[in-house]
Each structure stands twice: as structure tokens, then as C-alpha cells.
Prior knowledge:
α2 packs across α4 (144-163) and α7 crosses α9. It contains nine helices and eight strands. It is globular. It has helices at 11-28, 43-56, 64-80, 144-163, 191-198, 227-232, 234-246, 264-270, 303-317, and strands at 83-92, 98-108, 115-121, 169-175, 209-214, 223-225, 253-257, 275-279. Helix content is 37%, strand content 17%. With 320 residues, the chain is α/β, with parallel strands linked by helices. A hairpin with a 5-residue loop joins β1 (83-92) and β2.
Amino acid sequence: MRLKHIFLITIAILTLLSCKSQKVNEDTSVAEDVVTQVVNFDGGRAYGLVKTQCDFGPRVPGTSAHGKCAQWLEQSLRQSCDTGIVQQGQVTTFDGKTLEIKNFVGSFNPGNSDRILLLAHWDCRPWADNDPDPAKQREPVMGANDAASGVAVLLELARLMKEKRPNIGVDILLVDAEDWGTNDVEESWALGTQYWAKHPHVEGYTAQFGILLDMVGAKGAKFYKEYESMQFAPTVVNEVWSVAQRSGYGAYFDSNFGGGVTDDHVVVNAMGIKCIDIIDTRQDGGFFAGWHTTSDTLDWIDKDVLKAVGQVVANVVYSY
């Protein structure tokens, strides 16, 4: 994510998006009834899955922690999903390093051509370059929120979908090497997703839409309608936020517009799949205070936030 770069949106753009949002709501005619909850997402179990990832240590590509976590992710997806695929490849970083990466795909109802893509990155940033202590800025980031939280939500969703099968096809994609980037080169982010886009796990892969989860577990989290998501997939954004409101989680899913983030969903949209980013941003236009610091540890994680995001995504999936 290009330092998970947030930029301010001008009044003119906000006005344009507001008009677009109103038109979408008119066209879709979403009934404002309470969502029927088919499964009960367990925020406590998701919290435990965040902890398991952190117990490996920072999952920086090329490290022992990364390798051990990869084995656990593969096993976890294979236990829950109908099919599990490990995609191995090589990518080159902005600083000239060659990384051996692993993407994971777990699928439900693989024979169903109607599909939803759910994704998160599982690697950690190699340097805590946003740490307030300069002495710690070359240390790796533990990544409890960025991005063990998104992975944990998807793994818990996979467990639920094993117990209560969705009607639609669902693919859970865990991508590697997202966070080894620099602000100077936008394409230096989301390397694992770029690799998957060029080498999809199914030839000609497509989905009705995608939902990216990034930093979805921190205390005080707020999820605004992210700019790139509204540019490429406004109908999906409005559907998800409507489900959140009708599920009782409107306090987390704010209907206001946020900034734009260079994240994995940008790559997915470039493939022609409408994909949105559920990502925590703050009123100051930045991220939670532990972002890209050594303090991004389990202390930041809130079970209630994990519950809110997981339940909303589950309610979306089971509405099909």
C-alpha cells in the first residue's frame, strides 16, 4: 500500500461521489430491513487467530516466522475449504531483492461460476519506518492489525462456511509481499496480488465482486467509504455499508467518504473484478497510531471490531 497512502479528496470529488452514491441507492432500491443473521461470527475466536499469527513473530518474507506461518495457513485453509491451493512464485522488490512468496487460495463450491472473492495480505512490513523512535525504525513490524486481523477474520469465516455452506462460490485469497514497498514507487506495493493477477489460480478467473480486509481489528476503528473503492465499485461499497447498517454495525461503517489507499484492491480492479477495501482510517486522514511501528501488537486488537467486520462480511456472503 504505498505507505497505505491516504490523500484528501476535494469538495468537487466528494460532490460527484455523493451524486453517484444517491443514484446507486435509487437503482438498487435496497430494502432497509434488518439483515437475517445466518451464522454467528465469533470475535473471540478471530482474536485467537490474530494471536497465533503473532506468536510466530513478524511474518516478513524470507524469515523463519514467515515460513512457519505459511505452513499453518495452508493447513488451516485445507481443513476448512473444499479446495486449497498454494501458489509459489518470485517477485522483485523496489530495492532489488528477489522474494520467494506464497499466496494461498481456499475455495468453497468451486464448480459454481457465480463467485465472491475475499482477500487479505498475510505478510508484515520489514521495517517499522513510522515508529516514533528512530532507533526502532529498522526493526520489523509484528503486524497484529496490519494485517493479521484481516487474515484472522477470513480464517474464521472459512470455519463458519465449512459448517454452514454458502449458496454462492467463495474464494479466500491470502496474498504475500504486500507491505514491502516505498512511497516513491506505487507499483512496489501489493507484489503478491500483482503476481496472482498475472497467474490466477484458475485460468480466466473472475468473480461478481471482491472484498479486501486490511487493518480491521484495532481499537477505535472506523471504516469510511474508501475513494478507490467508490471509483471502481460503488455499488459494492453501498451494498456492504447498507448490510452493515441493517446488521447493527453502522457505528463502525461510517457512510462518509474517506481518502484513497493504494492497496491490493487496486490490482484486483485492474483485472476487471469490482473490489472494495474495508480499511480503518482515522479523522486526521491517517491510520491507527500503531501503523508501521513496533507497537502494532496484540494490545491494539479489539474483539468487538473483529466481530463487527466478520459479521458484516458473513451477512453479505449469505445474502446470495
